[in-house]
Design a protein that fits this description.
With 183 residues, the protein is mainly alpha-helical. The protein has 2 domains: 123 residues, Tetratricopeptide repeat domain (Serine Threonine Protein Phosphatase 5, Tetratricopeptide repeat), CATH 1.25.40; 59 residues, no CATH class. Helix 2 runs antiparallel to helix 3. The protein is elongated, with a radius of gyration of 18 Å. One of its GO terms (biological process) is RNA modification. InterPro entries: PPR_At4g14850-like_plant (IPR046960), PPR_rpt (IPR002885), TPR-like_helical_dom_sf (IPR011990). GO terms for molecular function: RNA binding. Keywords: Repeat.
């Protein structure tokens, strides 16, 4: 099943998945990831729903995948439901789930919620920060994107290629007064 998923074959992955009589969370995760990686976000969310309906508990590998499905498809409603579930389970402090939430809220144009999640994360990495920078830039809040980059530098975080890629729209759509050099 994983081999088909890794080869970008969601139909074959699904065929094997459907033939497994004794499923567990790992099989569901592989199926969800296969759908997400192949742009079949609605199908990924349906498998997630089936997983829950069959009494399987998603884990810290499941949630980032379904949050990505929500992000890319713009499904804020499902993202809100998933956020509520991870809070109830105490998984909202997980770095990868937090990153997924920041990205999902940013792509769904809920930038205040994205920033709140970022601020509440006990641990952040470059993906956390870059997701927020991208959220601001993708939604036309270029000054906020630049301000966040300055905040990163104040925290001694060195912007990387992801940061710079996200900042390109910001620096091309602001006045020269707002441009600064990241070292």
């Amino acid at each position: 099943m994983r081999a088909y998923a890794a080869c970008g074959e969601p139909c074959y992955t699904r065929h094997v998945f459907d033939g497994i009589t004794d499923k567990n969370v790992v099989f569901f995760n592989v199926m969800i990831r296969s759908y997400v990686n192949n742009g079949l976000h609605h199908d990924a969310l349906l498998v997630f729903k089936t997983m829950a309906n069959q009494g399987f508990y998603p884990d810290n590998y499941t949630y980032p995948c379904v949050l990505k499905a929500c992000s890319v498809s713009g499904n804020l409603w499902a993202g809100l439901q998933i956020h509520g579930a991870v809070v109830k389970l105490g998984l909202d402090m997980n770095l990868y789930i937090g990153n997924g939430l920041v990205s999902m809220y940013g792509k769904c144009k809920c930038l205040d919620a994205a920033r709140r999640v970022l601020d509440e994360m006990p641990r952040r990495d470059m993906i956390s920060w870059n997701s927020m920078v991208a959220g601001y830039a993708q939604n036309g809040r270029f000054n906020d994107a630049l301000k966040l980059c300055r905040e990163m530098e104040d925290l001694k975080l060195k912007p990387d290629a992801g940061t710079m890629g996200s900042l390109l729209p910001a620096v091309t759509n602001t006045s020269c007064d707002n441009v600064f050099v990241c070292e």
